[in-house]
Amino acid sequence: MRSDNFRTKFIINPYSANGSTREAWSRIQEILRRDLEKIDFSFTVAADHATTLSRQALHKGYEMIVAVGGDGTVNEVINGFFESGSLINPNAVLGMVPRGTGCDFVKTLGISRDTAAVSKILCGRTVKKCDVGHFTCSDGRGGNLERYFINIADFGIGGETVERVNRTTKVFGGFVSFLYGAVSTLLTYKSKRVKVQVDETFAEEMLINNVVIANGQYFGGGMWVAPKARVDDGLFDILIIKHTSRIQSLTSIPKLYKGTHVNHPSVTYMRGKTVTAESSDVVLLDVEGEQVGRLPARFDIVPAAINVKIGEDHERLRIS
């Protein structure tokens, strides 16, 4: 055990990993206790509860909040770092124990899903400054939503896909669940007419299949959607995937996992700090694997906003 660790709070989504995390937590604790002096933890009981628990823990003086779950749990915890538009503690640290369907953000950072390896990463005080995204959108009921994200947001077919995936069982894991969701959604999806603006450099109204606003590189259970994205460059990587036929879309799915889709003529790839989008169609948003809200929406990058816990070995990796 080490004495130079952060004062840590674990926030556990017991429903993550297709509901297996609650039962697995005792085993996970045993592994964590090999490296950490004390395990303070709370289980979530409802949607957005992780945000409340994260915020409460930071007000109580915890230095690191560890999300135990998938990308959706990480998203909720990140939102708890903010209150009234500002960070509660700019020095606070995000840690992660990946337990979820996708767990895509950790892929960009090169963090293993092996609990013993993650336990080592949580030791010490080596962190990486990461950008986050801030967005506002319609809640579909006449109001607005305002939230933060650290990995990827998208709208179009992505929003409809995660809505379908989250209505079904995820027992077969992230890859199969999201692949099934993507293929089945493609069979019925109708392209949306959307006006997209990026900074002051791009503005166009077009038929789109999907628009991706990326801080990390992966989404959808391992799709390498933004292979050039960096978590600390102060910019989004933005992919506009214009309307293509169903056959073209279906045959392009393998390219999404390899990152070669960026060379397709229907894909526009750019970088920017602000993205706005509006449409007369109903266009759903996907944020960190959860369907939240719809257009109109605005996305802004918040540079170097969050300290993310990485291990000493990971500091030497090229993850920026």
UniProtKB/TrEMBL annotation:
Gene3D superfamilies reported in the protein's UniProt record: 2.60.200.40, Probable inorganic polyphosphate/atp-NAD kinase, domain 1
Keywords of the record: ATP-binding, Kinase, Nucleotide-binding, Transferase
Single annotated GO MF: ATP binding
Pfam family, one: DAGK_cat
Any single biological process term in GO: phospholipid biosynthetic process
Domain of life: Bacteria
NCBIfam families for the chain: YegS/Rv2252/BmrU family lipid kinase (TIGR00147)
PANTHER family in UniProt: SPHINGOSINE KINASE (PTHR12358), SPHINGOSINE KINASE RELATED PROTEIN (PTHR12358:SF54)
Protein name: Diacylglycerol kinase family lipid kinase
